[in-house]
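Internal ticket #5521
Category: modeling
Description: The requester needs a full-assembly model to guide mutagenesis choices. All entity lines are attached below as received. Residue total reported by intake: 691.
Assigned to: D.W.
Attached entities:
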Amino acid sequence: MARRTLKVDYIARVEGESSLDLDIRDGKIAGVRLSIFEPPRFFEALLRGRGYEEVLDIVARICGICPIAYQMSGVHAIENALGIAIDPQVRALRRLLYCGEWIESHSLHVVMLHAPDFLGYPDAVAMARDHAEAVERGLALKEAGNELLRLLGGREIHPVNVRVGGFYRAPRQAEFASVTELLKRARDDAVAILRWAAGFEFPEVSRDYEFVALRHPAEYPMNEGRIVSSAGLDIAAAEYESEFLERQVRHSTALHSRLKRGGTYLVGAMARYALNRDRLPPELQALADEAGLDPVCRNPFRSILVRLIEVAYACGEALRLIAEYEPPARPFAAAEPRAAIGCGCTEAPRGVLYHRYNLDSDGTILDARLVPPTAQNQDVIEEDLRAVAEARLGLDDEALKAGCEQSIRNHDPCISCAAHFLSLRVNRE
Amino acid sequence: MAGDAVARKPKLAVWKFASCDGCQLSLLDCEDELLALADRVDIAYFPEASRRMLPGPYDLSLVEGSITTPSDARRIQRVRRQSRRLVTIGACATAGGIQALRNFADIRAFAAAVYPHPEYLDVLATSTPISGHVTVDFELRGCPIDKRQLLEVINAFLGGRRPALPGHSVCIDCKRRGNPCVMVAHDTPCLGPVTQTGCGAICPSYNRGCYGCFGPVAGANTAAVAREFAALGMAERDIARAFQTFNAAAGVFREEAEKHGA
């Protein structure tokens, strides 16, 4: 029997530690395994016994790339438990903060982690020698997102300003002057990078995903909405655990999520776009058409274009929010602890992030559940790998490995979040 | 030729252990300096940013994260052997990080709280700093580190000198920023007097108390701060918690928390 095995020990340009094994027997894929050996840090356990007001600083530390996502799902879950209603301007500031993180996280992934795959470079620094303008625009874009995070959060990584009920300090309108200029240029940079990326060669793949994302009555979803899917699911955040379940597999310190009724699903930019394209302003829908994106994109390699549409959207949305901003009367609403359970679900850059907290009467955390996007996408990433590898079996090992790594990066996995390492071992028989 | 130029540049490596990736992200967040840095050093091993992974030895290794598994305890030895200079970046690598809260708990109960099959995991009962395992040439504090301090550390090692970083408390920088003292003016508990500077006193500038993410300053009088917290009405448990966050396993913070029942 002809057996071929391929192994990638450490998948580069993703956040965290993972490896890949591919087993090929008689010209067919016999096994695909994405192993995550990121050491677990046991956040759900170390949150037990902490005060509710400490949660947002702690959960931020799950991920240095998307700390705002953890703070947003966390703050909404705790406010849900405590019955706190927030000021409309606090709501607007939170959406603005999320715009900053979407811009920073997506532009990091698009330009520094994903684009080098399409052009055959090991990294963005090497790519910059031949594509200086695109890399410089990408860095400027990232800088704009980070500047927004610094202004609203105090610093770009593990920002300090979010609290239960609102913010410690609400900015004055005048403080937005310099970031407004950065965001205007950033929007142009995003469109220029989109046009550049639209010219990449995209492998032909069409995957039959069940997309899962939030959906809001009027907005492209960030902090609020019902959880919907392309197969008709439509539930409140509080019903999350009745529809989705997590299981543990031996080869991974990340838990894998499935639909309880059976089947895998995809969260993230592609899912948001597929389910919420009609919530984008007409000029961005036209820009998506111009970039060659179908209204529902089923080719994961084209996710880079979807992220760029979202970056352009986040720049424009941030400018709108700043223009309409008035400081709230009070930066935060008072909180009274009580025994309660609360859930929150928001759109992290990588997709749906679910938190549930069970609070004691004095506000102590009795129990916490956190389900990050990458844990939910892990089964789909393995299914994608199988499809992508099957179409490339004629290639030599190096080319096959590169194709598989690119396929993993299509979903911008965040292994630190999934907490739980990816190494490509290809076995060919 | 390009190959010769590469050979003359110092080789930089970036390693990850148990962490959130935020401190190594700080290097990619140097948007204005990154391409210039890549001209001066050969970024030889930085998997988060590049598929190109050159073998050691390396002139400077930046190590993020703490040691929490038997395999990582062995891996850090290999990293040290390949590194001329080794600098830890951030609270995890320097003090064990937030995950060091396990050091004060039962690891089996921790694992069972998260995983249905804790028996699949191979983890240590403690999260320990890199200095607990190998010789460290310099420790950069912070959760996360400050990118200006990171650039100073890299520049210093390229120039063969010690990094020139301030060793005073957050209070000094807070005064320089002209902030009213949040503890005096607003009765807000603040760890600024016992925390090493580096962040630029961000929290008091946002109307909240410092929560100690750069760890204890040399000579920290934690007992005096704890008395002040008690006078502000904080319960013993809350005082213990204040010292038991991102640098929970760092000497005087650990001891002060223990005095308050942690």
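Resolution: model delivered.
Comment from assignee: The first helix of chain B runs from residue 2 to 8.
Ticket closed.
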